[in-house]
Structures are given as structure tokens and as C-alpha cells.
Known about the structure:
CATH class of the largest domain: Alpha Beta
Largest sheet: 8 strands, mixed
Strand content: 5-15%
Helix content: 25-40%
CATH topology of the largest domain: Aspartate Aminotransferase, domain 2
Shape: globular
Low-confidence stretches: none
Structural class: alpha/beta
Radius of gyration: 30 Å
CATH architecture of the largest domain: 3-Layer(aba) Sandwich
Number of domains: 3
CATH superfamily of the largest domain: Type I PLP-dependent aspartate aminotransferase-like (Major domain)
Amino acid sequence: MLLTLNWQENDNEPQYVQLYAYLKKEIVAGRLAVNSKLPSVRKLADLLGLSTTPVEMAYQQLLAEGFIQSKPRSGYYVEKLPDPEVKPGASIQTIQRPMLRDEREYVYDFHLSRNDFSLFPTMIWRRLYNETLHIEEQENLFYGDPQGEAGLRSQIADYLRRYRGVACSPNQVVIGADQFGLLSLICLMVKPQFQRIGVENPGYLLFANTFRQHGYDVVPISLEEDGISVSELYESEVRLAAVSSAHQYPRGMIMPISKRLQLLEWAKSVGGYIIEDDYDGEFRYHGRPIPSMQGLLPHANVIYMGSFAQVLAPALGIWYMVLPESLLNMYYSLLRETLLEPSSSRLHQRTMEAFMEKGYFEKHVRKMRKLYRKKHDALLLAVHKHFGERATVIGADAGFHILLRVNSERSEEELKKLAIQAGVRASSASFTWLVPPNPLPKEFFLGFAGIPLKKIDSGIEALSQAWFGDC
């Protein structure tokens, strides 16, 4: 057997890796025939001018991967490989990655949920993070509590009690890396009892699609002027519902206390649960923040969900939910059965714990609320100035975005293209409907949190010009 290895003496790869790769290539290509015997370790070492060690290591790797077999007192032989789906040398068809998000750069980026990071306390966060890596804190590098670090859960429970009106103990707080993971836990916990869920229409599709992926039937429930229709919930006979009561997504309505109490009564009467999505409850710009529904009645059947994504930064990957006491045993059983490990970084959790404990978090919230209020008011002023009666604002006074309903003869598709051509990001809200109305209103998200304050007026002017010209 003639082996013509193109040896690279000065190559960075170890000799055994080069030999292994060469022999593997020859076997796959069929140039080393099935059942043919390879030279002994010593003979091949002499042939290549090597020690026996790299040859033995190359053979052992080929043996482990099934390319050759070892016959006692006989030697190494080439194994028969299954016919490959792709022949050696053939071009491989690669799947084109679809555009999952609009990654275009816009002159005026009214992204619906982008934060303003100009005031992020980078130096403080870096210092606190580095403290979690001190030699005496090496335990932080190991797996933490799958429910979330106890210190952070205690800080979250205290913060929610004082600022969001949530009644809970640290043992009811569950921390995760994202909303999908926490929703999936809910799906697994309550699946034995519930097979259907009612969701707001329009609403945040992550809720509907996560439950659908877990085998639930998703029932769209209409919105009324003050939030989800309670009568439809009764009629649908669902016993599980997801709502955003403090600031409905995407339409921005605030659910009054009378309807919140009706919802709580519905959950109690049907033996069900409400998932309360409090995604931006900290940001109300005129008037006091609206407290949560969870804390209105003792032992309410409410699963409360929140995060640090909008109030601080989504890259930190810290979301949380507050489980009612009636679900805790199910949750702990799920932990035991699945051997779950924490999904949210333990280092980030410990840093966030210190950030809250030392008072930096509340200070940051106040600072960001003030900045976002200025941007919110500037946006409303610009819309009134440049659109006048040609557009209507929906869902002002809270959150990161408003909806702009446009009075235009142009199609939604035309309006989208004209906005892109003008360098303005203004995303259509049509995707938020599970069951769209007919006709579908032309509504667009205008996010104000992430765009620089000085660009808001000129951006809205550019959008008005793109859609209406000098009309």
C-alpha cells in the first residue's frame, strides 16, 4: 500500500492530526479500499520518519470514529462505510438563513422596543460584576439555584411589593433567562389541568405561540375599550388567560380596577389562572404607575411576569415570574422530575442583586423614566405638528411605543416601502392580530425610547413627507 502524505513539517497542527485527517480523507474517497490492511504502527512510523506515538494516536482516533477496525494479532483494516448522502467532492447545498429581524440601519429608527443605553451605569455594573469574580467568590462559577439566586429573589420580592403592589415571598419568585423559558415552565406545570388558553386579540404573539407549541388550543379573545372582554372569556369556557393589564400590548389601554376585579372573579369562579404580563409597568409618564392586578386580592390566582429587559437591558437575560402559592408544589415537582438547571446567568443574577441592594436600580429607574417622558412628549408633539388630522395616536402615556393609525388611501405595503425609502423604521402592527378585522386598520409602531431625542421631530417630518408629501 502506497501512502503519499503531503507532510507539513512547520504546520501548526500536531502530526497525529495531519495523519488522521489524511487517512480519513483517503478512506472516505475510496482510495483506501474496504478491508485493505493498513501498515503496522512501526512500519508507517518508519515510512514517514516519525515516532510511533503520533501514528498510534491517529489510528486510535480512526478506530474510535469507526473508519477502521482492529483485528487481534493481525492489524488495522479499513471499515466499510455506509453510502454517503453527499458524494465526496460534490457541492453541498446550504440553507439560506431567512431574515428573522429587520437588520437594516435607519436614519430615523423608531424601533418599538429598543432601550436608550446612553445612561446605562456601565462603570457601576462592571465594578459589581467584577466583585462576583473575586477569588473568594469562585462558587459563583458553578450551577446556582434553578429557581434563581436567593438574594436576587429577595430583592425582586421587596421591589415588587413597594413599587408594583405585588404580594409575594421570595419563595414564589422564579428567575429565568427569557420569557419563552418561563412560559414553557408554566405550560408544563398546568398542562395536566388545562388544555386551552385565552389570549388578547391583538396581543403579544409570544404567549399564543408558546402555548400552541406546547400543545394548547389558543383562543383569541377580543379587546374592549378597557381591555380584554371578560364576557368572552366566560363564553369561551377557557380557564387560563394571558393579559397585559397595566399597559396592553400593542394598543396601550390601561385596565381599570373594576375590570381587574371582574377578571379575578372569573379566575376564581372557573378554578383557573391569569397570567399577568407586566412588561413595562415602571414607565408611566403622566400620573402614578398602575399597580399590578396580582396584589389586589389575597391569594389571587395570578401568575405575575416581569423582567429587567426594558427597565435596564435585555442582554442581561434576567426575567422573572411570581407563582401563586397553589402552584408551588407543581413547580417543585417539575424541578425534581426534569433536573432543571438555572437558565439565567448566575453571575448576572449576583450582580443584579448587588445593584438593587445598594440602591442603584431604583435610581436608574427614576432617571430613565424622566428621559423617556421627554422623548414620549416630543414624539406626540411631532406627530401632532406634522400629521395633524391625517393620523391618530393610540396608546400614549406609557411604555416604549405608541401606535399611529394612518388615514391614507395607500395600501399598508406601500406605506411600509415609502417609510423604508425615507430611512424611517415604522413597523406595521398587523402581525399582532391572531384574527384580524376586516378591513384591517393601517397602524404602525413608533417607538421612542431608543431614538435620540434630537432626531424625533425630523424623523416624524420625514415620515409624514414620505406618506403624504406636501398634501
